[in-house]
Write a structure and sequence with these properties.
By secondary structure, this protein is α/β, with parallel strands linked by helices. It has a single domain, classed as RbsD-like fold. Helices cover 28% and strands 18% of the residues. The chain contains 5 helices and 6 strands, in the order αβαβαβαβαββ. The chain has a 6-stranded mixed beta sheet. Helix 3 runs parallel beside helix 4. The protein is globular and about 45 Å long. The model has no long low-confidence stretch (mean pLDDT 96). It catalyses: alpha-L-fucose = beta-L-fucose; beta-D-ribopyranose = beta-D-ribofuranose. GO terms for molecular function: D-ribose pyranase activity; fucose binding; L-fucose mutarotase activity. One of its GO terms (biological process) is fucose metabolic process. Keywords: Isomerase. This is Fucose isomerase.
Length: 149
């Protein structure tokens, strides 16, 4: 056990987050996301008993977002005509604001199949049991500033 590290971050996940470098991406996926087939060239970590918001909160406590791009956080766009509401996105905005001063401005949206294409190149995919639709989120890693060490 470690002090100050959220318990949801397993030793395996902490190792992977530490291995990641600047500009590497990770996906925190909902329960419907095809994590195993998208992650054939990635490290897939299963956290099926958890939801995306709690995983996002824990990850952002230790994971710097890329400050060199405008939108280091990406959400999968709702397919046009799909009658789905995405209230979980409001939760994400609140969590991101806690850890990045840009808040909502750090979040962009990617068309569904473009999101899949980018997910296939992610360093890691964290598969959750999240039941909300369009709850997938992709983060691009930044650098740890000297004053943060």
């Amino acid at each position: 056990m470690l002090k100050g590290i959220p318990s949801i971050l397993s030793p395996e996940l902490l190792k992977v987050l530490c291995e990641m470098g600047h500009s590497d991406r990770l996906v925190i996926s909902d329960g419907n996301f095809p994590a195993e087939s998208m992650g054939k060239d990635s490290i897939v970590i299963r956290l099926d008993g958890h939801g995306v918001p709690e995983v996002l909160e824990a990850v952002l406590k230790v994971f710097p977002l890329d400050e060199y791009i405008d939108e280091p956080v990406s959400l999968m766009e709702v397919v046009p005509g799909d009658p789905v509401e995405t209230p979980i996105w409001d939760t994400y905005e609140k969590i991101v604001l806690k850890y990045d001063k840009r808040g909502k401005e750090a979040i962009g949206h990617i068309e569904r199949f473009s999101f899949y294409d980018q997910a296939k190149t992610a360093y890691t995919i964290i598969a959750t049991g999240e039941r909300a639709l369009y709850a997938n989120i992709m983060l691009q890693k930044g650098v740890v500033q000297p004053e943060e060490q």
